[in-house]
Amino acid sequence: MASKRSLGRLHCFALCFVIILAGCSTGGGRPIDSITPPSGATAAPTTALVGPTQSSAAAPTAAPPARPTLAAVTEAPALPAATSAAPAPATGNFVVPSKAQLPPTRNALPNATYAAPNIEQEVRSFFELFYQARTLERGGSLSADSLSRLVDAAYADYTLPLFDNDIDDAKQGKLLAVSFSDLDVKLDEWQPAADGQAGTALVSVTRTRTAVRTDRNEAPQTATYQFRLRREPAADAGVAWVATDFLNPATRRWVSEPAVAAEDRIAGEIQNFFKEFYAARTLTPGGKLDFEKTTALTQLSYREYTLPLLQRQQDEVDAGVLIAVAYTDLKVQVLNYDPLATNHGGIATVQVTRTSRVQRADGAKPPQTGTYQFRVHRHTDEAGRSYWLAVDFKQPEVGRWVSEIAGMSVPVPASGFG
Fold this sequence. Notes:
The chain has helices at about 120-135, 145-150, 155-170, 265-280, 290-295, 300-320, and strands spanning about 90-95, 175-190, 200-215, 220-235, 240-250, 255, 320-340, 345-360, 365, 370-380, 385-395, 400, 410. By secondary structure, it is α+β, with helices and mostly antiparallel strands. The chain has a domain at about 120-255: Nuclear Transport Factor 2, Chain: A (Roll). The strands form 3 sheets. Strands 7, 8, 9, 10, 11 and 12 form a 6-stranded antiparallel beta sheet that branches. It starts with about 90 loop residues before the first strand and ends in a 6-residue tail after the last strand.
């Protein structure tokens, strides 16, 4: 099932979460020679990171683009008092870009009630709605909202970012039409709850997907997939179903299963990545923040989140109220790493602790230590070059990935924004 909704739903893992689906081997290609994306490789991913589109005949891959640690800045030259109004410090509330989509309203099935289960007919009706939400008529458009009403939990993290790929391709005129035919739905297992009405179902689905594209020829693709669904009440005594999990045929693992542990080599690469990452955010007196480097090291939901906040800091620099920023005491812990998360490289969830040391026009501020979680993607491009990209970020004040909270107003932590 196809479709930058961060490494989660900013879209995520999340996770529940715009990358060109270039094939790659489990190791991510040859070893990384440089963490920095190569010149001309701004072809960092432009489609989703949590697996290849399920429209292909081949099974999708499992699943929703920092230098040495710097010394603290201890003093800075005194500056004359500002003569014009300075921008507000990069604190307070920040609205995550994009439209809010939480919480979704579930679609009640037609001609069905919660109190009178007809499981086989209901799951058939659900998948008719499911593939209708993925259908693109010529001259029409795709809606992420329509699909989000039908998915939840791990499967939403897996599939919504993939569906964003189709949405983007349709907007760019690459994808003209998508249709589904020969739908066959088989109820493999039904596990009712104590009330006999709620419950979960294991369902196998076979369908043929036909796409019309302008950038390549794509033959009709027939595939069989297995889903876990949940039955729940809807408005007006109705009933709704949502897909919550998906069995990846390539790995025989459900997308809800924990990713495999990181290898030492991967942990070393990620450590070096975050050294570069924070070097790009370091400010020396009289200097500027490195937007070009930060852009090259980020993608998807996290880039949309962090660049506006970084611009706030640069505005303060330009106004003469922010003098220097340094990051010290960097600690990086890889929580998990799935090398098969996409067909162009793995995805890791990483916990980073660092201390920021800020010098403002009115003096040095107390050091601020913060611990954050990121999702980072080891992207391997078509030339076989590999590099890391930060693609999602767990906003600490609300405890959710930024791919999931588009449009929400969230406070910026006192220790900084990442």
